[in-house]
Design brief:
Blueprint lengths: L1 H8 L13 H6 L18 H15 L3 H14 L4 H12 L11 H17 L4 H14 L7 H18 L4 H13 L9 H16 L4 H10 L10 H10 L4 H5 L1 H8 L2 H15 L5 H15 L3 H12 L7 H17 L3 H5 L7 H4 L5 H17 L3 H20 L3 H21 L3 H16 L14 H11 L3 H14 L4 H13 L3 H14 L8 H11 L1
Length: about 550
C-alpha cells in the first residue's frame, strides 16, 4: 500500500498534519501522506483501511478528485469488505457540487450508480453506512427520469436527515452543509441555503479548526458580495490547513476577490498554480483568478505572463480549465479597453488541445468578448453576428440541461444586442436595453468558476452614459458597481471621469486617490492613471 499511495497522491511532504493514523501506518507513509488537514470519518473497515479512508476524505474535502478516486480504489484493494470505499469512490466521481449539473453526463452518473451497487455488494456493516449510500442513491438512481433540480432537492433532504439521525457524526454535518450550500437559488438575494449551511459549519469551525471541508465550504457559502466579509476568517485559514492541496491554496481567493484584496488573491493563486503542477485543472482555474486580480492593479504585463504560463501546461478536458482558457485572453483585452483586439479575438486557437467549444458556456465567453469589442468599435453588424452566436449557445445550454448557464448566456446576448444599438447611433433605446440587461445580471449570482463577469453589465451602462453626455447618471451607475465589486479598476477610473465631467470635483479627487493607490505597482501605462495624477495634482 505504501508504494501505491506514493503514486496515487502524487503530492509529498516531509511533515504532516493530516488525519490521525496509527504510528505504524504514519511511519510507513511519512513520505507519501500530504498535508491536507485533519479528518476523522469512522467506517467499519480494517484499521489500515480506516487510516487511509481519513486521508482519502481529506482529499475529497479539498476537491482533489483524481487523487481521491485513486485513494478510495486503493482502500477497496486493501480491504475488499470495506463497502464505504466504493461510496467514497462514488462521491469523488461526482466531483464538485458547485459545478453541477454542468459536469454530468449519463455515463458518469451510471458509473456512480455502479459504485453504489458495488458498495452494497462489498458490505455495509452498519445502518449508518447504509444510510450514507442510500443518500447518494436518492440523487443518482433513475437520473434519466428525473430533472436535476428535483434530484438535488431530494439529495439535500436526504443528507439533512442523515445529519439529524447521527448528530454526533461530524462528517454527516459537514457533507450535509456542503450539499445545502450547493443547492442554492442564484436569484435568492437572502442567501437562504448558503446561510443555512454556514450556520452548520460555523460551530464546527470552532470545534474542528483543522478540518479542510469546514473551512472550504464556509468559503463557498459566503462567496457572494453581500456576505463575503463573513468568509474572511475561513479564507485566511484554509491554505494553512491543507497547504499541499492546490484547491485549498486557491479557494481563499474567492473571498479575496469579492472584497477586492488583489495582492492576497495573486499570492494565493500563484501558489495554487505552482502546487497543481501539470496534472489537474486547478492551475488553469487559479490562473484565471490571478489574471483578473493583476488587471485590477493595472498589471497587464504580469497578467499576460500568468496566462502564458497557464497555456504552457498540458491540456485538460474539463469545464473549469476550458472556461479559464477562454476567459483569460478576453479579460486582457476588455479590461484594457482594446475594443478592436476584442472584436478580433480568435475563436479557438487551440481547439484540439483544450476542446473548450464542447462547453457552450465557455465558448460564450469568446462570443460576448467579440460582441462587446465589435459594438464598442462601431461595428453593429459584427456585434449582431456574435449576438446570434450567443443565442445559439444559449439553446445548446438548454439542450444540455444547464438552466443557469442558459439564462446567463441569454443575458450576455441581450447585452451585446443593446451595445449594437449604440453602434447604430440609437443611444436612447441602447441605454434602455442596457439597463434591462444590468437589472437581469444583478438579479442572479456569478458562477464559482469565474472571479466575475468579463465586464459587468452595469459598468458598460455607465460607460455608455458617460459617452452620450450624461455624466451624473453615469457616476451613479459606477457607484453601484464599486459597491458590489470593491476595488475594481475600470469602475473607479470610470467613476472618476464621470465625476469630473459632472463637476463633482470632490468625488473626482477622492476616486483619483483610490485609483492611484490601486495602481501604485502598475506595470502598464493606462489613461486612467494618467488622468488620476492630473486630477490629484490639480
Amino acid at each position: 500500500m505504501r508504494g501505491a499511495l506514493s503514486v496515487l497522491l502524487s503530492i509529498t511532504a516531509a511533515s504532516s498534519s493530516v488525519s490521525p493514523v496509527s504510528a505504524q501506518t504514519q511511519t510507513a507513509h511519512q513520505h507519501a501522506i500530504p498535508r491536507l488537514g485533519t479528518v476523522e470519518f469512522r467506517v467499519e473497515c480494517t484499521a489500515a483501511a480506516q487510516a487511509e479512508f481519513n486521508t482519502a476524505m481529506a482529499l475529497y474535502h479539498s476537491f482533489a478528485w483524481p487523487q481521491a478516486v485513486a485513494a478510495f480504489t486503493a482502500i477497496a484493494r486493501t480491504d475488499p469488505t470495506c463497502g464505504m470505499a466504493h461510496w467514497g469512490h462514488a462521491m469523488s466521481i461526482l466531483e464538485n457540487p458547485f459545478g453541477w449539473p454542468a459536469t454530468f453526463t449519463p455515463p458518469r452518473l451510471d458509473s456512480v450508480v455502479a459504485a453504489l451497487d458495488t458498495a452494497q455488494a462489498a458490505g455495509l456493516k452498519s445502518k449508518r453506512e447504509q444510510d450514507y449510500v442510500a443518500a447518494v442513491g436518492v440523487f443518482v438512481r433513475g437520473h434519466a427520469m428525473k430533472p436535476y433540480p428535483e434530484r438535488m432537492k431530494a439529495f439535500d433532504a436526504a443528507m439533512a436527515s442523515l445529519m439529524a439521525t447521527y448528530p454526533d457524526d461530524t462528517e454527516a454535518r459537514v457533507l450535509s452543509a456542503l450539499i445545502t450550500s450547493a443547492n442554492f437559488d442564484p436569484t435568492d438575494k437572502n442567501y437562504t441555503n448558503q446561510l443555512k449551511a454556514a450556520a452548520i459549519l460555523e460551530p464546527l469551525f470552532k470545534e474542528h479548526p483543522n478540518h479542510p471541508g469546514v473551512a472550504h465550504y464556509l468559503i463557498h457559502s459566503y462567496d457572494y458580495p453581500a456576505i463575503a466579509e463573513k468568509g474572511l476568517t475561513a479564507a485566511k485559514a484554509y491554505a494553512a490547513i491543507a497547504p499541499d492541496a492546490p484547491h485549498a491554496l486557491h479557494m481563499p481567493s474567492h473571498i479575496f476577490t469579492r472584497v477586492g484584496y488583489w495582492k492576497e488573491s495573486i499570492a494565493a493563486n500563484r501558489e495554487s498554480a505552482r502546487v497543481s503542477g501539470e496534472t489537474v485543472f486547478d492551475g488553469h482555474h487559479a490562473t484565471d483568478y490571478m489574471v483578473y486580480a493583476h488587471l485590477q492593479l493595472a498589471q497587464d504585463a504580469a497578467a499576460r505572463q500568468a496566462m502564458a504560463a497557464s497555456r504552457s501546461r498540458p491540456a485538460v478536458d474539463n469545464f473549469g480549465a476550458a472556461f479559464a482558457y477562454a476567459a483569460m485572453p478576453a479579460r486582457l483585452l476588455l479590461e484594457a479597453g482594446d475594443w478592436a483586439g476584442a472584436a478580433a479575438l480568435p475563436l479557438d486557437p487551440n481547439k484540439d488541445a483544450y476542446l473548450w467549444q464542447k462547453y457552450p458556456q465557455a465558448e460564450a465567453i469568446n462570443a460576448v468578448a467579440r460582441g462587446i469589442g465589435a459594438a464598442r468599435s462601431g461595428n453593429a453588424a459584427a456585434a449582431r453576428d456574435e449576438q446570434a452566436r450567443l443565442l445559439a449557445l444559449r439553446d445548446a445550454a438548454r439542450t444540455a440541461q444547464l438552466p443557469y448557464w442558459a439564462g446567463h448566456i441569454d443575458i450576455q446576448a441581450a447585452l451585446v444586442g443593446a451595445l449594437a444599438l449604440c453602434a447604430d447611433g440609437r443611444s436612447d433605446v441602447c441605454i434602455t436595453e442596457l439597463k434591462a440587461a444590468a437589472v437581469r445580471e444583478d438579479a442572479t449570482e456569478k458562477h464559482v468558476v469565474t472571479p466575475g463577469p468579463l465586464l459587468p453589465a452595469r459598468e458598460l451602462l455607465a460607460d455608455t452614459l458617460l459617452v452620450v453626455g450624461k455624466p451624473a447618471e453615469s457616476l451613479a451607475e459606477y457607484e453601484v458597481v464599486m459597491k458590489k465589486e470593491p476595488n475594481r479598476y475600470r469602475a473607479i477610473a470610470g467613476g472618476m471621469a464621470a465625476a469630473r465631467a459632472a463637476g463633482d470635483d470632490k468625488r473626482a479627487r477622492a476616486l483619483a486617490a483610490e485609483l492611484l493607490k490601486l495602481g501604485a505597482e502598475s506595470d502598464t501605462p493606462r489613461d486612467g492613471l494618467r488622468q488620476a495624477k492630473e486630477i490629484a495634482g490639480g
